[in-house]
């Protein structure tokens, strides 16, 4: 969601001229910034969000594998006990 918002902002800035006034939200205040600075900040933010997403996907995959292994072990133990 945040990544899509960042991409939308970058796309909007692509269509904006260099002379346009750009405002960036800093807490509850809007501050005028130059376009280059805002584009760099948004690009960095997008890269960070993409990297974080990949890390979370890897963690999710490892967790699923661990759960599957625990399930298999538990099923074997339960199967051994009932025999």
Order of helices and strands: HEEH
Strand content: 5-15%
The averaged pLDDT comes out at: 94
State the CATH architecture. Orthogonal Bundle
Shape assignment: rod-shaped
At the third CATH level, what is the topology name?
Helix Hairpins
Q: Please tell me how large the radius of gyration is.
A: 23 Å
Structural class: alpha+beta
The count of strands amounts to 2
Distance between the termini: 51 Å
Query: How is the main sheet built?
Result: 2 strands, antiparallel
User: Low-confidence segments, ≥5 residues, pLDDT <50?
Assistant: none
Strand order across the biggest sheet?
1-2
CATH class: Mainly Alpha
The level of helicity is over 70%
Q: Number of DSSP helices?
A: 2
Number of domains: 1
Structural write-up:
The chain has 83 residues and is α+β, with helices and mostly antiparallel strands. It has one domain (2-82): Helix Hairpins (Orthogonal Bundle). Helices cover 73% and strands 12% of the residues. It has helices at residues 2-14, 35-82, and strands spanning 22-26, 29-33. A two-stranded antiparallel ribbon has the order 1-2. A hairpin with a 2-residue loop joins β1 (22-26) and β2. The longest helix is centred in the last third of the chain and has 48 residues, at 35-82. The radius of gyration is 23 Å and the shape is rod-shaped. The N and C termini lie far apart (51 Å).
